[in-house]
Design a protein that fits this description.
Elements lengths: L4 E5 L3 H14 L2 E6 L2 H8 L6 E5 L9 H7 L5 E5 L4 H21 L9 E6 L3 H11 L8 E5 L6 H12 L3 E3 L11 E3 L5 E7 L2 E7 L11 H12 L3 E5 L8 H9 L3 E5 L8 H8 L5 E3 L1 H11 L17
Parallel strand pairs: 1-2, 1-3, 3-4, 5-6, 5-11, 6-8, 7-8, 11-12, 12-13
Antiparallel strand pairs: 9-10
């Protein structure tokens, strides 16, 4: 059985050794280490590992590694953690390593298993969401459920704008709506949105329950309902936003075997919500918007093939 391979980048020899020992104790293989991003990139690109850890405090160019990997089309996750301290290793590095080990062994990230995509966003979301959805390049073969923190009176026009920009219908959710492939539903302002499974299938419920994380709608409410309704067949996506709404729900989704994707820090207006999930070790991938859309497409079923157009009979 294959083992998760991790490459360590940290400025000091003591820091690299401490990280190496902790990662090995967690059950992963450390494939190598380097003192800085440039040297590390040269060593790891010949045999990309599953994860690269980079200590931000000792590597000023830590944020460039993900871009360098993308430029070479290397499929490797990057975890930028605070420093080489035991606390950072315990609270940032090891949770991510353990989650990736479980997914590596279980193979839960396979394509075609997702039934619902749930997206949460806040500050910066009205710009990020159109970019992400447009990058899907048309409707996908599962429904998309969206919570965007937004004042009353704005979600309806925002859904209309998303429809125009993204090439598939985006609607304000209403109780009783049936989420279907190729369409998206946006939680209405001041209402939570819940996915519910009954004997008749999946449908949506909106309600004015208590705010969570000072938010209504709340990403946590949606994510918890997705975990309960579809379990490992959900896919959670968290975009730019202040605070940590979505963290608790993402934990519940992840606990069912579902994957959580988050927007990277460089492309986020505020890295509060996605950053909280990344730091908790729940994020399967941390990506800018365009690669994030590609990752979503890689995890959902392919769109149905249309029958080839019939040819008119040839004239003799």
């Amino acid at each position: 059985m294959s083992v998760l391979r991790v490459f360590v980048i940290a400025g000091s020899a003591e820091g690299r050794q401490g990280l190496t020992d902790a990662i090995r104790d967690a059950g992963a293989e450390v494939s190598g280490s380097a003192a800085d991003v440039r040297a590390g990139f040269e060593r790891l690109r010949s045999s990309p590992p599953g994860l690269v850890t980079v200590a931000r405090s000792s590597c000023p160019d830590a944020g460039t590694l993900a871009a360098m990997l993308r430029a070479q089309q290397l499929e490797t996750s990057v975890l930028v953690h605070a420093d080489e301290s035991a606390n950072s290793v315990r609270t940032e590095v090891l949770p991510t390593v353990r989650v990736l080990i479980r997914r590596h062994l279980a193979g839960t990230a396979g394509s075609g298993t997702v039934q619902v995509v749930a997206i949460g966003a806040s500050t910066g979301g009205p710009v990020a969401l159109p970019q992400l959805l447009a990058a899907l390049r048309g409707p996908i073969a599962v429904p998309i459920l969206i919570v965007q923190h937004m004042p009353v009176g704005f979600t309806g026009p925002f859904a209309e704008r998303l429809t125009r920009q993204c090439g598939f219908p985006v609607r304000e959710a209403v109780t009783g709506a049936v989420p279907r492939a190729g369409e998206a539903w946006l939680a209405p302002a001041d209402h939570h949105m819940v996915l519910k499974r009954t004997e008749d299938g999946l449908h949506l419920i909106t309600h004015r329950g208590p705010p969570e994380n000072s938010c209504r709608p709340a990403v946590d409410v949606l994510f918890r309902s997705v975990a309960e309704a579809v379990g490992s067949r959900g896919l959670g996506v968290v975009l730019t936003g202040m605070g940590q709404d979505g963290l608790i729900g993402a934990r519940q989704m992840s606990g069912t075997g579902a994957s959580i994707l988050v927007q990277d820090e460089a492309s986020s207006v505020i890295w509060g919500m996605p950053g909280a999930i990344a730091k908790a070790g729940i994020a399967a991938r941390i990506l800018p918007l365009e690669p994030l859309a590609a990752e979503i497409l890689a995890r959902v079923p392919p769109p149905p093939r249309l029958p080839a157009p019939s040819r008119p009979p040839s004239s003799v």
